[in-house]
Amino acid sequence: MKKYILSLAVLSLFYTKSDACAWSDPDYEYFNLFTQSIIKDKSYLPFLLTYSNRFYGDYKNMTIPDDNIETWKKFFNNQLNYAETENLVYKISMNDLNALKNGTPNNPLLQKLGTGFYQKYKEGIDYLIEAKYLEPYMSINYIESPDSFYSSPSRSQNATSIDYAKTVNALTSLYNATRNPEIKQRYGYQLVRFNHYTRNYDAALEAFKTYIEPIKQKGTVYFMALDQLAGAQRGKEMNSDANWNFFQVFMNSRDRKESAFVSMKLSDTASFSNIMKRAGTSDEKNMAYFLLGYEGFTDPIPIMEKMYDINPDSEILKVMAVRSINELERSYLPIYYYTSDATDSPNVMRGNTDDHNKASADTKSEPVEVKKEEKLSFWQKIVRFFKNLFGSSKSESANGDKNDQSDDDLLNNPDRIPFYTKSSYGYDEKTNDYLDSLEKFTEKIKKVSKDEYWQIADAYLKFLKKDYKGSSEVLEDIKTTNPEYLEEIKRMKVLNDIVSHPKIDAEFEDHLMKDYAEYFVKKEVKKDSTAVSDYDYYGETPSTADFLKDVLANRYFLQGEDGKSFLMNNKLSDLQYNPNSSLVKSVEDFYKKPNKTQFEQQIIAKNMDNVGNIDAFFSTIYGDRAMRQADFEKAKSYYEKAKGFAGIPRMNYDWTDKGEKITPKQYTADEYNGFRGISDLVFGHNVWESFGSAETESMTAEDYSGFPFIKNNMNKLELADALIQLKKISNGTDEKAAKANQLIGNLLYNTSSLGYYRQLFVMDIDNSNGGKYDFWNTDRKNPYKYYYKNFLYTTYIEPDNFDLAINYYQKSLKLSKDKEQRARVLFQMASAEQGKYYQYEAKNASTVNYSDPKYSEKEQAHQTELDNMRNEKYRTYFAQLKSQYADTETAKGLAGSCSYFGYFLKR
Length: 907
Fold this sequence. Notes:
- The protein is mainly alpha-helical and 907 residues long.
- Among the domains are: 65-137, no CATH class; 157-253.
- It has 40 helices and 9 strands.
- The longest helix has 25 residues, at 819-843.
- Residues 1-22 form the signal peptide.
């Protein structure tokens, strides 16, 4: 069969953890409130719950003792510490050991031990010299199958690279000459391993029987050799025996559990079921149950009950429990809450949405739209990412994210945390019952187990059920000296205190700073903003502090304090991306609030960051909104206060051979910075619709000769002043008034979501970033339901009022006597009317489920309905242009340059 080497780019698609997209890693999608790693036996850390890797990753930063090193340390009578022993066994070279043997040690550690060290431990040192000689060759020789699908790289040397007979004879001779049983057994281990790696499987089995078993020691070296024996048995397809021996290695070693587990999986497709049949002792049965539960995809509690019957103090029973708790936490407490269509009930980290409606009645024109939470699968996120990256057509964007949203419904129980009925992590609609069952099991086991772990677990499950009082009572009764347990108890007490508090007022904020400052005040690490560093795609794993920030952000949101809610999760500069007026006003109110509490000053206000002149920043946003509402006088009053505007805050991201260099964007003197650098083409009209082309290619100027106050290059204050003068002129009845009305209409259209200068009044630096100009959220007064944490992930800006432009065009059409000019104005009106249609389309998006058997015909019917509505109500000015002005040069030119107008003329 032809062999292929698979592309890394393709292979990367099959791994959950990707260094390219942070959102693809489920281990970064919950808060880690219950620390899995508090289990006492750290050798089981690889088997904690993870969805990012085959085994739990954090354990690599912790200490799982190496059994081999511990055994050598004991052999040397603890004369060396762990690190020194590891150095001697794994790192010091064979030449250094020979120098020690010859009485001339050069290595600092060996010099410290002295020449007498060799004489005292002669057999052990001689063995290490032999082992270091063999180690470079100790890998199995890869034999490629003719049916292999892809090639595998092989090491340049392996066990077949050295003389077989000479090596076996040498090891046998050393074995026979050695008197210390442990060292003797180590030579036997080398014989078993060497025969295994040279694929002399029968000789490996014989070597184990001849050189390992007669030494009646079943310690570390025995299980190292048993591991090699099992590998040889697998080579001989003695899968059941191999599997059983790997199981023994798994049970009796600390640092080999992960590799033994993998070997079991490779040895026997029915591995753990067959082990259960063979298990004889209680410990073996208990471990077999653990492996069955670890591999299973069903409710683990029945298996945990069986493990409880065998040994309620079993450490592996705690591993099963902590995995179950972690799975519940992931589903109950995701790091983001998305919204879609439907209602839901309050979560542990938020209150009732109606409270927000009442609290914010003075600041919001209508209640927050109640939406369903949305949890996206990995592939749904892939789809959304590329849709956001490449944009969509106007009809597609009108559908919003409805086709991406989950079909999961939430349990409508106000006394419980909502839960997805079809959790992406494997549970079904009985998950709440599962939480109840796990809590009952935990309460039962905590009464008989001596380990305080079960009390902590019980307290946490009560926390998930919003029984904060019950959780706190359990925590108060725990007596322990275990430092990891104490840290978890402390954290949970803080969680219960803060989450159970219904309102965050000044008194409670003082309490937070007095008692829990460590969760909110980060130790600032000063970094050079121009420094080059490796880019961290993931950032920090969500933590308890992050969860508490979200809780407070939600509380402020419900209390109507949107500005504080926003600043808990965002920086002031983030307002540029979704500058909706009510939120901006709330943030400004907080900014100007006198007598801020210490919490407000140190935790919230610190996010009033690098926008330069803050007052000018707010004034620019308000001025922009006034311009979009055609209130030019009001806009001017704000822009007069915005003269100190420092420019829209952006960063430059440059990649170098050393990493990524991040620097603040510096605007050139003639570059648009959000306030200055506006061309008079903003009053013109587009030659063709191309947002990526230069303005001189896409736009053409009108005749400004009668309006000398329109400058070639303006700032927003000058632009507002020019519009005020145009507005005065537009009140006349002559051709100049007609032209003034047209110019104002042009500006309003050109700065709408359809215009070339659509960035001008929405705090953006160019007309790209299409998501900001989607139509799908047109009717939303506030798309945020719980907090503003996902502020940058949600498109929202107040909708355009296309009627403002149309009204000015209407006046121009009425006053103008020039037929060509009237044709041009009609076309501009028709373009604005298209914007009104897109808004209508967005409000009437398709709700047909893709799984519907009649999806295609229903979608087609819906599209036909939209087309009919567009032709009946939103082609008014096209129809007028066709019927009354088709003979004009303007209309003929537009038919050639505007495809959809040309199509309309041919209908």
